[in-house]
Amino acid sequence: MDLCYLESKAASCECCELCKGRIKPVFARGNPKSGIVVCGMCPGFDENTKGVPFVGAAGKMLDVILGSVFKSDGCLDDLVYITNLVKCFVQPGKKLETKWMDACLSYFTVQLSLLKPKVIIGLGKDVCSYLLDINESISNMRGNIFNYMGIKFICTYHPSYLIRGGGVKHRDFNKVVDDFKTAVGLM
User: Are 96 and 90 in contact (CB under 8 A)?
Assistant: First the structure.
């Protein structure tokens, strides 16, 4: 099995009712050989229409974070691999259900087994709590290095959280940049 085959399987998945709201499946973007996987929880509206993760406002903020970390003139997508745990769109305001995460978990774990990353950066409490099976606030989880399937796992704030508090002027913006720098340092 390779990533293209896995992506095609995820694109036709009907394991839960989220497939009914799927316009385009959202699998990943970036460099599968980068060694760093950035993982959010689920695609938003923009991602659902384009079929690419983190292309809306949160994606633009993620690009600012990546630009702050890598100081690169090249394509930021060459430096990390970006995905979501849940591959189909979840309506804004709808509470994430464990059965949706459970339905997509096998796609994510196979993705990781194919990618063999050195580090995973989890964006936000939902994905970090679910994958690590820890019921803590994101502020308590961030700044620590966890283990997920033998891979170093760093929790940090979600870009949408930063946007709600002023973007690059948010009091936690530099903490997120530092978390990404920590991930790079673990490579």
Answer: yes
Q: How far apart are CA 58 and CA 159, in angstroms?
A: 5
Between CA 185 and CA 21, with CA 40 as vertex, the angle to 5 degrees is 160
**119 HSE (CA, 13 A, CB side):** 21
What residues pair up with 123 in beta bridges, in sequence order? 156
The pLDDT of residue 18 is: 87
Task: Please tell me the distance from the alpha carbon of residue 129 to that of residue 120, in angstroms, as a whole number.
Answer: 14
- Cα torsion at 35, 54, 22, 13 (round to 10°)? 10
Share of the chain above pLDDT 70, in %: 97
**Which residue in this structure is represented by tokens 């009914």?**
20
For residue 153, the model assigns a pLDDT of 97
What pLDDT, in 10s, does the model give residues 97-146? Answer: 899 999 999 999 999 999 999 999 999 999 999 999 999 999 999 989 99
Q: What is the pLDDT of residues 69-81, one digit of tens each?
A: 887 655 666 789 9
* Domain residue spans of the chain: 3-185
Q: What is the CATH number of domain 3-185?
A: 3.40.470.10
In whole angstroms, how large is the CA radius of gyration of the chain?
15
In contact, 25 and 51? CB cutoff 8 Å: yes
Whether residue 155 contacts residue 172, with contact meaning beta carbons closer than 8 Å, is answered with: no
Give the chain's length. Answer: 187
